[in-house]
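User: structure tokens for this one?
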Amino acid sequence: MSQRQLDATWGLILGASSGFGAATALELGRRGMSILGVHLDTKSTLANVTKVGAELESYGVQSRFFNVNAADHERRRKALDAIAETVLPAGSLTLFMHSLAFGTLKPFIAPTGEDALTPAQLSMTLDVMAHSLVYWVQDLCARNLLRHGSRVVAMTSAGAARVIPSYGAVSAAKAALESHVRQLAVELAPRGITVNCVRAGVSDTPALRRIPGSEAIAEGARQRNPSGRLTQPTDVARAIAGLCTVDTQWTTGCVIGVDGGEDVVA
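Assistant:
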């Protein structure tokens, strides 16, 4: 298969500076897709997106990055206005990827009120990691940036249906995200736009390292996985690239496991 089968296409990735978002940006860039990336980085982590941009440039594709809070409504609209000016002359987005990993990791019940999840933290986690998908898709459709053949992909996890210490707010967000994907898939099917979740196996990413007890989670997944290793961000990136390069128009509203069989092993 040609490595440039995505020439002259565009992808928009939320969370493009690290983890699954960065790996997917690079995999798609290698295949010829130009990348629009939204990320939220401070001076200490801006080197991540600079590195991604430089590698994309080496592949001969275009890239443009927006260092903004993807859950801020006004900043989203401003970024999309700029994105529309870039993309619309060439057509529409082939891929919109939602890979935001910013939420509060606290237990619901704790010895003191200060250690327990607050209403504001729960609302923020769901807004960033779930509801923002709906708002971005609404605005993308309003600007005609998603059309027949466009792919929408949102990153979920096995934690959507399992209990992990301090993961309650994120688990709720992932469950809501999967529900949003089902609803969007049905509403966008008449337009020929597919919407799916990708459920990655446990991966050594910045998001995993923020979870209390992440080392034990990783070791358990490594022992459970039939291949004896963790899922790599590149595994996920190749799967998402496959959704963009293979005729998967009839695959929508699904949670697609990319974990080497990890989730089916008790």
